[in-house]
Amino acid sequence: MKLTGVQRGELVKFFYSTGSNAEAALREYRRVHNIRGGPCSRVAVHKLIKKFEETGCTCDKPRSGRPPTPTEAVSEISRAVAEPPSTSTRAVARSPDLPKSTCAPSEKARRGSLQYLSAQGSSMEGAEVIEVDRSGLVSEDGKNAKTVLCQRCGSKVLCPGMALFAEKELFLPAMMKKRSTPGSLGEGSVSGEQLKDHWLVDDMYAFENVGFTKDVGNVKYLICADCEVGPIGWHCLDDKKSFYVALERVKHE
């Protein structure tokens, strides 16, 4: 039986937490799920770990296909933010399945595509850069001094001291909830903000609660995993240790 993404994530987590032992990882999996056998063999676990260490993820191989055109990229952002999150750290294993981009867009497509501008942290033409009053938010060692929460439902995103303050100009689409109709998203343009102040997290497991949209080129947007409002942040699949949470998109207590 083919392993699900959550199962693969759990097995990877248990493998390393038990001293890189495949048999111990399987025992821990069975103990947690109260089962006597499965979900796979030791050989399968070793293959899974080899794939994870070589590629950085446990996802299936990417399918072939042409890259999206700039117009398609705008629609893709709309769908990614409006649809349910594809990943959440509230999942049982906090699965590390953040698949790489399936193909690199051509240079012609890159020049006009929104995901390329976002991935490079480039400014959107005419967008005003928004800065936040961060007094009392940043500790002496440059970390978040307060708990980071969802603005809408109050769900905890980060505990104090789990992220570094970073200045990086990133364009984030306008906030919306899943399955909402982004009326401001016209063809060839997308409504949003150019944000500069962020919390930089270098480990996905540092989050208390966060969700990810489906891939938009080589970018995933961060959203609240409880109420699914977002995006509150930005993550490039080319850099597995950089997760940005915009100070403007969250509240602090």
Order of helices and strands: HHHHEHHEEEEEEEEEEEE
| Total strands | 13
Distance between the first and last residues' Cα? 46 Å
Q: Estimate percent helicity.
A: 25-40%
Q: What is the approximate shape?
A: elongated
Mean model confidence by pLDDT? 75
Strand content: 15-25%
Structural class: alpha+beta
Please tell me how large the radius of gyration is. Answer: 19 Å
How many separate helices?
A: 6
Most strands sheet:
8 strands, mixed
Protein architecture, described:
The protein has 253 residues and is α+β, with helices and mostly antiparallel strands. It is built from six helices and 13 strands. Strands 1, 2, 5, 7, 8, 9, 11 and 12 form an eight-stranded mixed beta sheet that branches. Strands 4-3-13 form a three-stranded antiparallel beta sheet, with no helix packed on it. A two-stranded antiparallel sheet has the order 6-10. A hairpin with a 6-residue loop joins strand 11 (233-236) and strand 12. The protein is elongated and about 55 Å long. The model is unreliable at 90-123 and 180-188 (pLDDT under 50).
